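Why do we bother with a discrete structure alphabet at all? Because it lets us treat a fold like text: something you can write down, compare, and reason about line by line. To make this less abstract, here is a complete entry for Methylated-DNA--protein-cysteine methyltransferase. Read it the way you would read a sentence in a foreign language you are learning: slowly, and without expecting to understand everything at once.
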Amino acid sequence: MTNATAYLSTPLGLLELQGSDMGVSAAQFVKPAVEAPRPALETPAAQVPDCLRDAYRQLRAYFGRELREFELAVAVAAGTEFQRRVWATLPGVGYGRTASYLDLARQLGNPAAVRAVGAANGQNPLTIIWPCHRIIGASGQLTGYAGGLDRKRWLLEFERPTVQTSLFG
């Protein structure tokens, strides 16, 4: 199994993609240079490893407003059983829609697990692909996003032409 990395330049900064022959395992914004090394440029499309080409192409299409739903082979090894259940619900919150942490907890059959849902959401290894930016506070406020609230706000505005506050769909 080959482990590979590629970088995609986005309007929100550099996105690091990781994966293997099994699928994409991580998509995370590169932290500032103080916290992590930062390549000067994105990986040229012709040099993206085969195992990451679909993720690279689909993320590019997303930022080009040509794609709303990802169809990728995923190979995430991290996470507890509960985190994986939370992450599995995220794609159900469709493009241009939002749901609350409480909505997700109810979807999972445990309305008391709001904080645990929030914590799991914060550990999402596939930002944008598993759209944790679409999860907001019960009163509509923007709360928590591993990539920063400015990025979350930008992503929601980016999808705004069709934004409808609604649970899944």
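What the structure line is telling us, in plain words: The first strand starts at residue 4 and ends at 10. Residues 70 and 129 are 6 Å apart (CA to CA).
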